[in-house]
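Hey, can you fold this?
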Amino acid sequence: MVHRDIKPDNVLLVDDHAIVADLGIAHLEGEDETRLTVTGNLVGTPRYLSPEGRDVSPATDLYSVGVVLFELLTGTLPFGGSSIAELLVQISTMPAPEIVGCDVPRALAAMVDSMQSRSPSDRPRDAGSAAAALAEAASMDAASMDAAAVAAARRGLSGVGSP
């Protein structure tokens, strides 16, 4: 299944677990693509769309998760066109910016950067391997983070999916 609309509003945190909500435009492999959407229409939230556009795969959702994590860690989105057309051109032609200049552990930043790779084949192979790599990066760098940074990170995570 490919969700096709991963964004902060669709990620709920319950007891330290992320739950993806709103499966309204999710795509199951082998399902008729036009059943829920009009062919040719934009599907998903533009700021979280992957560069590959309509070629949906699990890598599409991993890119969107990378955008959500980039926003969580930096406080900004990787692309910010002044119109949907400009935004889509940026997403489809420019590499996502790397996470630099903020207090984010390097291993975690590198993992998020890889999730936003322009090429789906350069992203983690599936959600399970992405989750394992993120957990490893976070635990590896947790020892080097001071208590205030850990507390700030937790406060930021608790806001995802909240009104």
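Oh, and this one too while you're at it.
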Amino acid sequence: MTFSELVVGLCVLAAPIAAWSHGDWPPKHGGLMNEGGETSFELVQKPEGIHFYVSDHGEVMETADSKATLTVINSKHTQTFDGTTPGKGMLYFQNASAKPGDQVILKVQFRAGSIAIGRYLMLNKSKKPSN
């Protein structure tokens, strides 16, 4: 076996591990997870507003002193909400809600200055997403 064959073989074996390390995590709070990215956001709708649970590779992230903005877009209008940080790994947007068909965009600037964005397209619960 040549060196280049060995390198190619190792890359093929490592690809699933690399994909998993940046993959999506299952929801822990009964919500919807954003697609991909380093930072995972779980969107949970409650009667009083929308909550997000924030993690990085499955580990809860520090959200204290973060600045978060939530934008909900539908065919009639766009609404923007400023978030609060009620606890570690949590963001809260009072009075925010999203309905099927709405686009939801979360933008967070963490204390150290890094920015993460989570995007969602709200689907009707009775319909399964198409592949």
